[in-house]
Batch of 3 targets.
Target 1
Amino acid sequence: MPAGDPPIGVNAQITDAITQTNVKVLGEAPAIAMGSLYQTIGNSVAMAAANAVYSQQQANVTYQAASTMGVANLLSLTV
């Protein structure tokens, strides 16, 4: 722009639209962050429950094997 030209103004509707968009983004950010946090917590709780179920299943297999070995030892005793 040559030195003698007056500065070109920006249409007020454009600045208003940009301002509204920025305010909308800033206003929605906490809700989006909380939604993401709730999804993460929900996923973590679901994984914890799945791990607990898996551990219980593995423990039951171990207990059953131990019981079977104990009964087999009892039945093999000679009096």
Target 2
Amino acid sequence: MPHCNPATQKRLAFGFAAAMLAAWPAMADDDDDDTGRLEYMYSCSACHGESARGDGPVARYLNVDTPGLTTLSRENDGEFPLYRVVQIIDGRHGVGPHGTIMPVWGARFMPQALAEGGHFRAEVIVRGRILSIAHYLESIQD
């Protein structure tokens, strides 16, 4: 993409991420792909717990309640709010991290992704990591 300016590259990255988001159920193979679970355990379970019920070992030290994440579908009329969950985890695009001290994972994932090769590629990597967590959360709803 030598002729693309940074703004165009960013739009393409977001478009690619949106396409991945739309295609994710068809692409994911729960038997073979543990990526989302592993990413959740590494990045989220300290606060939200291994069972995603808000009971992680760090939760008791926080001055805010750590929400459980297994009832998101029930709380949204039986539909998992995938796009909203992706926005909350990412936290970089106008959606505060649900009014708490939750880390902004989009920004936290970015430095490593940038080190792996350029802004365009980094944005796709970050979106993929966040989407894998969201897909995992969708798979563990009560």
Target 3
Amino acid sequence: MIKYPMAVDMRFVLTGAKRVFDSRPMYAQLVVTDDCNLTCAYCDEYTAKAPLPPLDELKRRVDILDRLGVQVYDLLGGEPLLHPGLPELVRHAKSKRGGSNLVTIISNGFLLTERIVRDLNAAGLDFMQVSVDSIEPTSLSQKALKTLMPRLEMLAKEARFQVEVQTVLNETTRDSYAQFRDMLQGLPFAFGFSIMHGRGGRIAIQGSEYLSLLEKYGVFEGVNFYGQHLREMLKGDFSRPWRCLAGLKFLYVNGKGEAQWCGQQRDCRRKVEDIDLAWLRSNRRHKPCEPGCALGCVRLISATLGEPFQTMGASLSLALGLGRKAGGR
């Protein structure tokens, strides 16, 4: 039976409230490895056969991020399950702040085994986001239910962390998305989709078909924060202003240990050990990549901390898991 994480306590909430006003990051995406076992055509955030960063080095990066103030970690790749030290890295991250933080693994799920799930349970993992795009493999993605269903069924039985199945919407997945959701109805997972982007993070799809899916299902909470803006972008209108907080409240730490604004903006880099408050404050500005940006994680943190009063209800729902259904469990 899947249990909701207890990491969102009053300490977490109060520290998160501080992040609205201070100059410290709240959310970090930490690349565990650039290597990946798949070659999805729409993805440019992996390097085949890239060397694995040493576990001790990854732990050191977590130590630095914790001292900076990070409360929420995404461990990703590439494919993070390729790293044999992943459960120990989760354990290390959860040792910070007395466990009053959140740790997520973003995975394609192909390498999941019962042993790995048990190890992640024991390490205290809070969430796993499994990327599954379609019912059958497509020209853009190999992440298909036909291949992954046995692993998802195992995950439903064994995981003590919350699981979300996340889909990248594009022209090869949109028409079968309703059937895709129907096939997964019996599993105690949350569901969401992200909007396909191109290089630089700019939205790569438009049209009424996607608007219809948005109206029917919504997307994961971070994108719902800017729902009207997303509707406009799906119609080709990128005029609405917003301020990206990447490099300040949101950090992306690549496989070399360099902090970037995000996974798509790679020109602004700084060694994670060289990050200071002055550098963080320097990123509190509008960025040229904002028009058309469809990066949900960056949007989530920018909306939560940049517009706290408008997003307060959604933020609490996200943090406490109130908006997620788990099949009655």
